[in-house]
Write a structure and sequence with these properties.
The complex is a heterotrimer. Chain A has a seven-stranded mixed sheet, sandwiched between helices. By secondary structure, chain A is α+β, with helices and mostly antiparallel strands. The two termini of chain A are 36 Å apart. Chain A is built from six helices and nine strands; from the N terminus they run ααβββαβαβαββββα. The longest helix of chain A has 16 residues. The relative contact order of chain A is 0.15. Helices cover 25% and strands 18% of the residues of chain A. In chain A, α3 crosses α6. The N terminus of chain A is likely disordered. In chain B, strands 1, 3, 4, 6, 8 and 12 form a six-stranded mixed sheet that branches. In chain B, strands 13-11-15-20-17-18 form a six-stranded mixed sheet. Chain B is globular, with a radius of gyration of 22 Å. Chain B is mostly beta strands. Chain C has one domain: paralog of FGE (formylglycine-generating enzyme). In chain C, β5, α5 and β6 form a beta-alpha-beta unit. Chain C is globular and about 45 Å long. The chains are: A alpha+beta, B mainly beta, C alpha+beta.
Chain lengths: 232, 380, 246
């Protein structure tokens, strides 16, 4: 189970108060959060720490967008990926560029080729005059058992995907978490194949889900528009 | 995409649309440019992504003017006729709730509703309108809900796009391609139960130019209800799945309650009024033999289609269907509205009233003129 | 020092047993569910408050929007207090999948799988498998006739065959694989595409057509996202049996 580690890191005020949100910081310093909490545990909110949360610090609003990991960011998840070359990386390492993300598995013969097809057409639409857009495409396997790095590499080579495409695997529990944030529903069948919903998600540079399509075609134009905006 | 994949996609689309009854064909009222079918597919349930919803790219008509908030009314009221002569973008909001209300005096039932009442709120739009539909599911709901509007052309009639967890709101947009009076209902599994608990209503899509003017318009919707206790048993009565499956209705009601259209709640008109009733049948099971005792329908639009029939006594309204009936009232008095499957009327509640005020019209109807004994032959 | 009023939740062994999914794929008409441990009672507001106090990142004013929507713990009077209108011994609700998982993880436990939950829930007070007992099914359905979201304190009713309380009649409960409840099927020709989202065409392939409550559970789960919180949705935790157990 992954806990939102970044949120933890942001907590520098006393834990019992746990105040990180801007609204509460304007409360009077003697505010007692709740009758339920033993009085002796309540400490006044020290003004010096009032700006502990970078979200709330007016002086830091100019921070580069990639600096704080926002509450909506998928990069809060502590997920370890292994790519087609056997290299390991954290999911959060994708921070900084827009990402087109989808769950697939390489032995899937029906929906997954169509998902890949959609993804490629979205990427192609954003590339201008052969100038590849600065994005990443993250295709994560929902079948860690069969999708070894070798299988992922073979798949990537077979489909002649360029270097922006990363094929990756994660352990089963982490796949479930990735599916949860992308809103992909899936289930393994006794045959070893998977039932799954065809979802393509768009993450901005900070890892916030800013676009999503389920099914084929209908919302492609919208996703392309959003991706273009993100690239610019 | 390979041919095989395309075929598979189409096959899936066909399956999705398999039980969607919204694909009636357009007739005389078709626009000059024949609109393509709306290709909106299953739209992801994606909270917080309102702007990812389909934009109002319109095929057939282009909405004009500022967006309008659609007027909705509780039965038996009907929103005013539309006086626009152009297609607009209409925003309609509907909230699903689950709440205990009286189904009869002394008898409570947990109704599931569109808008807090049974039947759900009446919506009125114009053919060619682009409707941005917001479905909210109250946070206290136990169930997810969705809506299948028979006025929608597209998968599930909107149901695939409006599957809404408690406390959530979903949005989808459709263009009202066909004029007519259409049932809407919840289509979440188990569908029968959602409908049996009252999740249905009517949406009217007026043709350009509107319907002929009348003096009074009413919204009446029939539904059958299934409780574990017998008709009139007191207290909170749970839904009976067994009776519903057996189509053994405990209640057959107009507007969701015994007495919704009687006494003080009776519909009211004056002699000389032209009356139009928008009559729907939510089911889930029973077909209505809709009849107004003492009146003849001057016009009936059977199945709420484009053409009308004249001089009709009783019209059939299928479950999940509707009809428009029109008649002029010439004689004052009380007219009983019934499902002429008549045991339902006297034992299950399908009884309403239209009270007509005004001057007597003895030339048309005299009232009783005499009551005397007569000499009869003995029976053999 | 904080005084812990929390009574450690006790678990009971459930299973092994057979569970028949409502929409089985080929080969899963009957699933063998190995024995596992399951909380006897749903997690209560008080227990969850203790958790939130120990893990303030899960307070409603701290939790990232990735992990919980706006309804998260919104019945509580404050981020760290229940208030008088919340029954502390009642099942907690308004908890996202992430939060439920984090809670169980803090107890070295996990959420039950759908198969485990359903196996436990098909027991009546008398029988391990009452999934075809009309009386049992009618009792479950009766919950849906109860309006709103009133609950009782946990473990107020009779435990079922396995010693588990309140699987029906109080709140919906998270399962770890909630997202498998509905899938846009890859094998489209078998007719199970999006089957619970509309039209309840479920009857085409459903294995046990009389269990309407099971249809509802699947419809409910399939309406959820991981960040969803609803006022009727709580959870309990499960655990693998210790290895040395027979």
């Amino acid at each position: 189970m992954t806990s939102p580690r970044i949120v933890l890191m942001l907590l520098t005020v006393p834990l019992v108060l746990g105040i990180t949100n801007c609204e509460e910081q304007v409360l009077p310093p003697d505010h007692v959060p709740g009758l339920d909490e033993p009085v002796e545990e309540v400490e006044p909110n020290e003004p010096a720490e009032a700006h502990a949360d970078p979200h709330c610090d007016p002086d830091k609003e100019h921070l580069a967008a990639s600096e704080p990991i926002l509450g909506a960011s998928v990069y809060q998840l502590d997920i370890s990926l292994t790519d087609q070359d056997g290299e390991t990386a954290a999911l959060a390492d994708f921070q900084g560029e827009p990402v087109v993300a989808a769950l697939i598995y390489t032995t899937c013969t029906t929906a997954c080729p169509m998902i890949l097809n959609e993804v490629e057409s979205i990427v192609d639409a954003v590339d201008e005059d052969g100038k590849p857009a600065k994005i990443k495409v993250l295709l994560i396997s929902m079948d860690p058992e069969r999708d070894t790095p070798e299988a992922l590499k073979a798949y990537r080579d077979f489909h002649q995907l360029d270097e922006r495409y990363v094929l990756a695997r994660a352990d089963e529990a982490q796949v479930r978490e990735i599916a949860a944030v992308l809103g992909t529903r899936y289930r393994q069948l006794p045959s070893g194949d998977y039932n799954h919903s065809p979802v393509i998600a768009l993450l901005d540079a900070q890892g916030q889900l800013t676009g999503r399509m389920e099914g084929f075609g209908q919302q492609r134009g919208e996703l392309v528009e959003r991706l273009r905006d993100l690239v610019e | 995409m390979t041919l095989n994949q395309t075929i598979m996609c189409l096959a899936a689309a066909a399956l999705l649309a398999g039980c969607n009854s919204s694909t009636s064909t357009s007739e005389s009222s078709a626009p000059s440019v024949i609109p393509e079918a709306n290709a909106a597919g299953p739209i992801a349930f994606a909270p917080g992504l309102a702007s990812a919803l389909p934009s109002s790219e319109v095929r057939g008509w282009t909405p004009e003017g500022d967006p309008i908030t659609g007027e909705v009314t509780y039965a038996p009221d009907v929103p005013a006729p539309i006086d626009r002569d152009y297609p607009a973008k209409v925003i309609i909001e509907l909230e699903t709730t689950e709440e205990v209300m009286e189904i009869a005096d002394g008898t409570d039932y947990t109704f599931w509703t569109f808008g807090g009442a049974v039947p759900g709120k009446f919506m009125r739009v114009r053919q060619g309108d682009t409707v941005e539909f917001h479905l909210k599911n109250h946070p206290d709901s136990k169930m997810p809900h969705n809506i299948d509007l028979h006025a929608v052309t597209g998968p599930g009639g909107g149901a695939t796009s409006t599957f809404t967890a408690p406390g959530h709101e979903t949005v989808f947009t459709f263009q009202a391609l066909n004029a007519g009076l259409f049932v809407y209902h919840c289509a979440t599994a188990p569908v029968g139960m959602h409908i049996a608990n009252g999740m249905y209503g009517l949406i009217l899509v007026e043709p350009p130019g509107g319907l002929p003017a009348v003096d009074k318009e009413f919204y009446v919707m029939q539904g059958d209800f299934y409780t574990t206790g017998e008709y009139g048993a007191e207290g909170l009565q749970p839904f009976s799945m067994d009776k519903a499956i057996d189509e053994d209705a405990t209640y057959v009601l107009f507007n969701g309650r015994v007495g919704a259209l009687t006494g003080d709640n009776a519909l009211k008109a004056e002699v000389g009024d032209k009356v139009r009733m928008f009559v729907g049948n939510g089911g889930p099971n029973l077909i209505s033999s809709f009849h107004v005792i003492g009146e003849i329908f001057d016009k009936v639009y059977p199945e709420a289609g484009t053409r009308f029939q004249e001089n009709v006594q009783t019209t059939l309204i299928p479950a999940g269907g509707a009809a428009m009936v029109e008649f002029e009232v010439e004689v004052p008095g009380t007219y009983i509205i019934v499902d002429h499957s008549i045991f339902r009327t006297f034992h299950k509640g399908s009884l309403g009233m239209l009270q007509v005020g005004g001057d007597e019209a003895p030339a048309i109807y005299s009232g009783q003129q005499s009551d005397t004994e007569y000499e009869a032959e003995p029976l053999k | 020092m904080k005084i812990f009023l929390l009574v450690l939740a006790s678990m009971t062994t459930v299973g092994p047993g057979l569970w028949r999914p409502l929409y089985p794929a080929e080969g899963e008409e009957e699933i063998t569910v190995p024995a596992f441990e399951l909380d006897e009672a749903a997690v209560t507001h008080r227990q969850f408050l203790e958790f939130v106090q120990e893990h303030p990142e899960w307070r409603r004013d701290n939790v990232g929007s990735l992990f919980a929507d706006e309804g998260y713990l919104d019945s509580w009077a404050g981020p760290g207090e229940l208030g008088s209108s919340v029954g502390r011994g009642h099942p907690v609700s308004g908890v996202s999948w992430w939060a439920a998982r984090a809670y169980c993880s803090s107890r070295d436990a996990r959420l039950p799988t759908e198969a485990e939950w359903e196996l436990a829930a098909q027991a009546s007070t008398e029988e391990a498998d009452a999934s075809e007992d009309p009386e049992h099914l009618a009792q479950i359905l009766a919950w849906y006739s109860r309006p709103g979201n009133q609950t009782d304190p946990v473990a107020h009713s009779e435990p079922n065959f396995w010693g588990v309380y309140d699987l029906h009649g109080q709140v919906w409960e998270w399962v770890d694989d909630y997202a498998s409840a509905l899938v846009a099927n890859d094998n489209r020709e078998d007719g199970t595409v999006d089957i619970t989202r509309f039209c309840g065409a479920g009857a085409i392939t459903a294995s046990l057509k009389i269990d309407y409550a099971a249809f509802m559970r699947i419809a409910f789960r399939s309406s959820l996202q991981a960040d969803s919180t609803t006022r009727n949705l709580g959870f309990r935790c499960a655990r693998d049996l210790p290895k040395e157990a027979p």
